[in-house]
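User: I'm curious whether this sequence folds into something compact or stays loose and floppy. Could you predict its structure so I can see for myself?
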Amino acid sequence: MTFQASASTVPPCPVCQSTATEGFFELRDMPLHCNLLWESREKAMEAPRGNMELVFCRGCGHVYNGAFQPELMEYSEQYENSLHFSPCFQGYATELARRLVDRYRLHDKHVVEIGCGKGEFLVLLSRMGNNQATGFDPSYRHGRTPEAAGDRVRFVQDFYGTRYADQAADLVVCRHVLEHIRDPRGFLADIRQTLNGRSETAVFFEVPDTMFILRDLSIWDLLYEHCSYYTMQSLTALFELSGFRVTAVESVFSGQFLTIEAQPCATTRDSITGSLGIPEEVQDSVDRFAGRFQQKVETWNGMLREFHLSGHRVVVWGAGSKGAGFLNMVPGAHRVECVVDINPHKQGKYMAGAGQPIVSPDALREYEPRAVLVMNAAYLDEIGRMVGDMGLAVELLTV
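Assistant: Here's the prediction. I'll summarize afterward.
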């Protein structure tokens, strides 16, 4: 899974433009979209694929896919990544919205969300502070939030850009979008331009925490869709190099996400040379990652083989990115016959690349699996309660 590439074939770091980079890991033939679900097993198995060649930047600590091809990506109404059907995630999102409303005194203000998905978080921000709100996302589906908040919330099925500079906002929110952007400096420059003369406006971004993948070995979070993997150091560097003053950076949601808060500043830094120290833990995690990845894949491949030889059924719980990653990375995952998800908009569809049908939790009563593979430990208690309420005697295994 390791690779070596000459400096001439690896694009410079998209954050700091450094060429002091090293390729350290590769994955072949991964589905382009993990959250684009399919109407049949055959179509799911034929989902378009791409290669991942992970590169580490020694200048700012960033990780990125040197083989990413942005022209292959397409986001439409069929893209389904909403997590708000989970009470656990609802609790996190609600507390986050309350914190932002309180911190930035968002009452009777205007909030803009870039990449609002189906609009659930934007509606929370609107309701909590009686705020006007505008969400931008080409994958937004009209009718998914009919109770949105009256005429206070507006959705635009488009990518945000400088043409929307007239949308004067008191807070700009962007959650789980930046990791999809090939040119993050250009993306933030556009946002910075829309905020000219509005130095009091704050921005709040949330991205996956790359150390959760590298250090804690959440390897199923490696997605072709994610061309950038941010460490705390590279995320800070990106905003400082893009004309923002960083006010806070935090690791949240059991270490799975990073959040950053910033405001536009008058000057833009041209370089981070000599001002950024990359912790040894980051380099060490990069150096050890390929071997640890292979070991984890082999462990789960062996466990699935043992369940199969014992005649025991196994299901995956979680049809999101982690579930798709697991089913496409573990060779023996074809032995998993179905995937459970509480999102009704995923049920009846099929997993990209792997082809398993997505079913509701109620289907477990008839299927009677021996074990349920929980793709995200954050939801273990929630899933345990649901399985217990159904009276099922199954083993819950966090993956």
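Summary: The two ends are 20 Å apart (CA to CA). The chain has a mean pLDDT of 90.
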